[in-house]
Write a structure and sequence with these properties.
Strand order of the largest sheet: 1-2
Oligomer: single chain
Radius of gyration: 50 Å
Distance between the termini: 101 Å
Number of helices: 16
Largest sheet: 2 strands, antiparallel
């Protein structure tokens, strides 16, 4: 099979034209995408300027931010104008949809004609190589052929050759028809390229003018910032600072206890002042473990607070005239959050006993452990301290003396805000002469890490 000269490059004219038309489509898409990105950027600048343009003026705002905001507003206007001009240019670009489709169709026709020619050459080679058998088939006696079924059919070699020639003739005709239009397609393509070239140059000039305008506005902004001096702003801040330092607001106020005639007093109780663990242990060791159930605690507290010595005065009163210990300190604080673990109203406190399962304790409480009293670190620490000295246990669940169960005192982890683990219990040890929390089977003290963290 001998193919004609230039067979491999046949159709290159349509390929080249189609490639250039498609390249114009890519340029169009790039320009459209650029226009949309610019529009998004402009919208962002407008939102930024709108957010800050109405700030209350002051020395720093006027001197530093105002030039920047002004430059942003000027940039917005420049970009809006440029974006509008470029969008108009792109919208006026020639439509290449039809030329692209026509050229693609022409390329298909050329390739079909090329393929058809190659098929004819191959089929002719087969028929030519089978010439002797074809001639023998033709020369056979007619009567003899009637006895053979295939005698009425053309031999495959000739049949396929005939079909390839007909197909090639059809494809060649379609290719010639398109190719006759090729010069006009070239002329149209040239016009398109020249229009795109002209419009894109104008778009680039628009962008160049935009850059020049932005450069001018930025230079103005820089000059305004150069003229700014931080000294007046710092002077005003310094003057305001000096004025504030002389204000009486900085002076600590005194507390007057109007419960007892407005007497000036220290505040030692009832204001979430937490007694440190070290001081609590010191007081417990010095004062012993006598149980406080009587007296009038706030009368005592007010007398303590009137003394100028604060906690020293408290210690003197304890040693001299009162038979009590640190429990009063905790009790006075407890009264503010009393009760810490309130029971539901339909649960008689005296119905609770040592046999009450730990898993039921939470359901007996009338509070949300995540939100209510013991969600506060300070109150959990207070409740824990209360539980470790001999304070009336009934204040924990009902707030009324002699009307409560000790089950929560014995089985509750106040810092962990949950029941103590099974087998662990709080009780007063006569041997150790203090409240302990122990593992009942081994007698070992229970002191988990989360207790240490809040102690």
């Amino acid at each position: 099979m001998i193919l004609p000269l230039g067979f491999d490059r046949f159709g290159q004219s349509a390929k080249t034209l189609l490639g250039q038309v498609q390249a114009l489509g890519v340029i169009r898409d790039v320009m459209r995408r650029r226009i949309e990105l610019d529009a998004q950027y402009i919208a962002g600048l407008e939102a930024l300027a709108e957010e800050y343009i109405n700030l209350e003026p002051n020395e720093v705002i006027d001197g530093l931010l105002k030039p920047v905001l002004t430059q942003i507003k000027e940039e917005i206007q420049c970009r809006i104008s440029a974006n509008h001009d470029i969008r108009t240019l792109v919208e006026n670009l020639p439509d290449i949809t039809e030329p692209e489709q026509d050229t693609s169709t022409g390329l298909t026709d050329l390739m079909n004609a090329k393929k058809g020619y190659q098929d004819v050459m191959e089929a002719e080679d087969v028929a030519k190589s089978s010439q002797s058998s074809l001639e023998a088939w033709y020369a056979r006696d007619f009567e003899y052929n009637l006895q053979i079924d295939v005698s009425r059919r053309l031999p495959d070699e000739d049949w396929r050759y005939r079909k390839s020639v007909v197909a090639q003739q059809t494809n060649a005709k379609k290719a010639r028809l398109w190719f006759f239009k090729y010069p006009s397609a070239i002329n149209q393509h040239q016009e398109h390229i020249e229009r795109w070239w002209s419009l894109l140059k104008r778009a680039s000039i628009t962008n160049s003018n935009l850059v020049s305008s932005l450069s001018c506005h930025i230079s103005t902004c820089v000059n305004q910032l150069e003229a700014f001096s931080p000294l007046p702003a710092i002077t005003l801040v310094t003057e305001a600072y000096e004025e504030d330092t002389e204000s009486q607001i900085f002076q600590p106020t005194v507390y007057r206890n109007y419960c007892i005639g407005g007497v000036v007093s220290d505040i030692l109780f009832g204001a979430d002042l937490f007694l440190p663990k070290s001081r609590l242990e010191e007081l417990v060791s010095k004062l012993g473990e006598s149980h406080f159930l009587g007296l009038y605690p706030w009368k005592i507290a007010f007398e303590i607070e009137q003394g100028s010595g604060g906690i020293t005065r408290y210690m003197e009163l304890l040693r001299s005239s009162f038979n009590m210990n640190v429990e009063i300190v905790l009790l006075l604080e407890l009264l503010h959050y009393n009760p810490l673990l309130p029971l539901k109203q339909d649960i008689p406190p005296r119905s609770l006993n040592d046999s009450t399962p730990r898993r039921e304790l939470v359901s007996l409480l009338d509070l949300d452990l995540e939100k209510d009293a013991l969600s506060s670190r300070r109150r959990r620490r207070l409740a824990h301290q209360i539980s470790m000295v001999i304070v009336p246990r009934e204040y924990m669940t009902t707030g009324r003396p002699y009307y409560s169960s000790s089950v929560f005192w014995e089985k509750w982890d106040f810092i962990g805000n949950r029941p103590l683990p099974a087998g662990i219990k709080r009780y007063y040890s006569s041997e150790k002469r203090k409240v302990v929390v122990e593992v009942q089977k081994t007698g070992e003290e229970y002191n988990p890490s989360h207790w240490e963290e809040l102690s």
